Amino acid sequence: MDPLDLGDRLAQLMATGRRVSTYKLATLDALVQHCLENPVFDDVGLRVPIRDLASRVFEAYWPQVRVFGEHGVLRQNEQSRAGTVTVVDTVRSLRSGAEQRGLFSVAQFKEAAPHEWAATIRRLSITLAQQPLFALQRTGGREPGTAFLYDDSWLSKKTTVSSLDAHDWSITLFAGVPSALARVSPMLQPVLQQWWVDDVQRHNSAELEIPDLRAFLFDANRAGVARLAPGLREFQQNRCFYCKRTLSGAVHVDHVLPWSRVAIDGVRNLVLTDPRCNGDKLATLPVVDHVQDVLARSEVDLQAVAAPLRWPVETERVRNAARGLYRSTGSGSPLWRAPGVYDFHDGTAVP
Fold it and tell me: Coil, strand, or helix at residue 255?
């Protein structure tokens, strides 16, 4: 499947279809991230656990249920029926309860409350099957649409647990779709985010400033990961991960694989940097050398950094995401090495 053709088809579908909430966008982005973290050959399909998509959707909304200045918690859908509990309601309630227990990130919540997390993701998986996964390939109305991502014939607004059991709580992407989604991701993900911003503006009556709103919706959870700074400082011997200079004054905790591409908060993906390096790198993919250095760090030492905060390390997830990201990045693409210094991607894969 040609990635550009698939990207264009998705863009047309999202642009012309009726979006009554941001849930379709969140689900599609979750599919893209799953494909990046689970790279396959170009001509094969991929079984995607719906629980994995539900987990990613939950993670996407976690930072978005905070109060946005004077506007309060932002609406993510059209007016709901009285008594309806939305996805955002669920995430907001759980985040509030988690923070009262000293859990300030999804990563901490998953690690500290595995049974509560599993029950939440099970409920959210049912919601995804009945709504966005059923409607994702449809433009709206009653027409069935043409399935081009996965077989949705068993999905409906009345999908039952028995039906989910019969399908192993999974959808299967058609042959060629997983690799095409991964390859088109650098172009598709920014578009999804722009539509998301547009939809949030539309669902909220107040005037919202675009730059502030985009940062609010999609920037990484800086406050949460900042709690790892002391442990990372000791582990890195008080030196910036990128430039190796001694750290003094303000420091930043950076996602080596950009949060905007793969939302991974595991310690394996986090490094301590000086503001100059982090401010210049932003959401750019780093050179493969930096990723190899991240993956070479001692698992035992990272566990020591993570354990006091009940934080996961997620080594295999980071390794798989790195493989998918660099495999889907075209040769000649700029990769960040240092402030003002970029190399061109030569196709080197992450081992």
Answer: strand
